[in-house]
Amino acid sequence: MGIQNTRGWSIAVCVFVLNVGIVGVIHTVSMILMTLQKEFDATSTAIGWVGSISTATVCSMSPLSCFLYELTSHRKVALVGVVLSAAGIMLTSFATNIMTLFFTFGIIFGIGGNFVYNPLMNLLSCYFPHKHCSRATSLAVSGTAIGMLSLGPIFSICFTDYGWRMTLRIFSIVILLVGVLCCVPFDPPPPVAEAINSQSLDDKENEESLEKRRNKFMKYLWILKLPEHWLFNFAIIFSTCAAMFNLIYLVSLAESLKIEPKLASHMVAISAGGQLIGRFLCIVVGDKLPFPRVVAMCLTCLLGTGITVMLLFIDSNAMFIVYVIISGIPMGIHWSLIYSVAVEIFGIVRNSEAVGYLTVSIGLAALFAPYAFGKAFDATGIFDISILICAAFWFMAALCYFVMYTYMRCCSSTDSNKYVSVPSGIVPVENTENATAV
Predict the structure, then answer these.
(1) Tens digits of residue pLDDT in 18-56
(2) What is the pTM assigned to this prediction?
(3) Comparing C-alpha atoms, which of 101, 132, 141 is closest to residue 336?
């Protein structure tokens, strides 16, 4: 077990590094795209679609990456992802028009990002099926916030000194070399799920059900029959849409409130600082909560609702900065806890399909959020309705988490073969041995 834990933490650190260099680019894409828009004299709509396609591709390719690591291994898929990510950045540096960017940055880099992110978050969850799950996954995804803080200033300086083309070429080589080294510790996951299920199967019906879940293809359809699957993914869609509001429109929102342009441009970094606070809280107390993590997500979404409504009453620079920092906390908790919550709800045996659908839900939200908020702003010329929509998204996410928790509590009391109560919360019956042993 000691060797296993050491390997798991080394994987967490490597995933952290990869998130800084690859997923961090997705969250600082505005810096790159702003430069490319001037270079190619492109419209805001066209250049915005480059970022949207990239984000959507990172998430929507999850079924393919799940299928590939089921057939091969997490390490092989991650290696392919590193190569594709580096190739996408390199090819982008040779782009001569906006249409090229749709393919190089939007598609190639997006697929590479998914092949790195999705398999490795699944692998990390397998190494930490219960104990330290929140801590390990929160550490790994914190690399995204570090990327937001560091890559923006780095790109800004290097674009000025070396030009955007040379900067992207150097960065692609760094991604390739560092990425390949980070893939070395990615050994196959320990056979935790098999041990858990072999101890909890006591009749033929359960054996047949498990056999279906073990099937590399049918298990992705089997999970669709679970009500908690739909409630969880709707919660992810709503909360991600709410989180995307600040990611996409924070600078524009600051300018609409008459914030000085120079100060407005720093809001992304300030928001990243708030997110780091939320992620740090998850690392420290995420595995020591006196209640299930799904309840923590519900409370986080309610916090996001209240903070967003408060935005309607902001009338000074200082108040807006306070809002940016505080609003980053539920965003950081959201991005950090969703993977450990998925393990808590669906168990390690369904982790692959749960994480796969989770990532797809994030992609759907990334496509829908700009439309929902942008249409409201275009129709009114102010962000008030967009702010209320964002608050509604946070509240709907909280409602989904609450209904899901209530449903699972009812199932645990009426159907002992489906869910059981353990100190860490409500978990599927196949996780009982693992939960009680920790």
Answers:
(1) 988 888 887 676 667 767 777 787 765 566 677 777 877
(2) 0.73
(3) 141
